[in-house]
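Morning!

This is the sequence you dropped in the shared folder:
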Amino acid sequence: MTEPTFDAYAATRTDARFTDWLRVRTQPNWAEATEHRFVRELTGDTLDDDAFRLSFESMYELWRPIQRTADGGYHGKNCQKRR
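The structure's back. Tokens below.
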């Protein structure tokens, strides 16, 4: 386990970077996300066009309700419209 704070992490290193501490703190999730087949193929420019389109459309559908909420365009039954 790494140090719980960046200050504690930096106290034992001369070249400590905040991003390095975050990477260490989030393992194995960081490795799983950045070494995923989709990421490897995307960065290697070998990702199938249909796979990219499907992923883009999926992300769009995920973020659409969040965007509406942020814009004030979504008003649940318990929410009042912003003016």
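Headline: The chain has a mean pLDDT of 85.

More detail when I'm at my desk.
O.
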